[in-house]
């Protein structure tokens, strides 16, 4: 009988053009009335028997309906909050597709609409599209970083595919910068990708870095690492740099302009090449670049959005073989030839 009454009320509401919310309110009033009948009338009463005969049944139904209603209300408020946060953009707007895509960021208290807007407005350069650059580039693009540059003069080789997951077998022989750009555009058409198929040199570094406000260094040689560090620190651009070998990786944020050391403060001179063999010589476990490269992307997002605590002034070392992570305090050096102890002055 209750089902028939509910269907009748719903039909009357449809016929009268009542909004869906009003129709649900009528159904709710009916269920509350049935619940009252079950509680007031004595056992065996005909009306109570016709409406189920047991108050517990309707109590469970009303409880379930309340949970569903509450869940829908929470979702509606979160969507409204997200829409409000991104409704006053500084340089453009998000499309409906972007709002849906970045919803998991926007509902994060530490990111929200303003943080996602900062990501959209950010310009990040990644040096190297190999093991470290591959996952960093993928996650930066997926996160909605507005402009992503990638510079690399190498081509995709078969031996790269064991760990450089941004590239595919079909793209063997293509420049890595081009291959990475194709993958990022396929991942997220709402970001601007700028591939540079050339080697980073002293001649072009300063002019190139001037177009970006954050640099990620995933290069595989010390000459490039020291070059990136010098140019980034001269331009006061934060630098997220990482390195890895075999089972171990390390990562830090080098930012003397804001109180941290530079790369040369920690590593004033390159070690003997015999002590640091290349991945081709020493080997590297495939997922390790993914772990460290993803950490680089996380650090970049924190720098851009201001969320949490970065690795500025700290060096993180991850040992995948023994599942150990160590964090070492890193301080600026007064007589550092690259930053001249700027981190000490800023700190």
Word description of this protein:
- The chain has 347 residues and is of the alpha/beta class.
- The chain is built from 15 helices and 8 strands.
- It has helices at residues 2-16, 20-40, 46-50, 55-85, 96-101, 103-106, 112-121, 133-143, 176-187, 202-209, 222-234, 263-266, 279-282, 287-305, 342-346; strands at 123-127, 147-151, 192-196, 214-217, 239-245, 248-254, 314-319, 324-329.
- Helix 1 (2-16) packs antiparallel against helix 2 and helix 8 (133-143) packs across helix 14 (287-305).
- The longest helix has 31 residues, at 55-85.
- It is elongated.
SSE order and pairing:
Elements: H1 2-16, H2 20-40, H3 46-50, H4 55-85, H5 96-101, H6 103-106, H7 112-121, E1 123-127, H8 133-143, E2 147-151, H9 176-187, E3 192-196, H10 202-209, E4 214-217, H11 222-234, E5 239-245, E6 248-254, H12 263-266, H13 279-282, H14 287-305, E7 314-319, E8 324-329, H15 342-346
Parallel strand pairs: 1-2, 1-4, 2-3, 4-5
Antiparallel strand pairs: 5-6, 6-7, 7-8
Helix pairs in contact: 1-2, 2-4, 8-9, 8-14, 10-11
Notable traits:
elongated, 347 residues, alpha/beta
Could you write a compact summary of the structure shown?
The protein has helices at residues 2-16, 20-40, 46-50, 55-85, 96-101, 103-106, 112-121, 133-143, 176-187, 202-209, 222-234, 263-266, 279-282, 287-305, 342-346; strands at 123-127, 147-151, 192-196, 214-217, 239-245, 248-254, 314-319, 324-329. It is an alpha/beta fold and 347 residues long. Strand 5 and strand 6 form a beta hairpin.
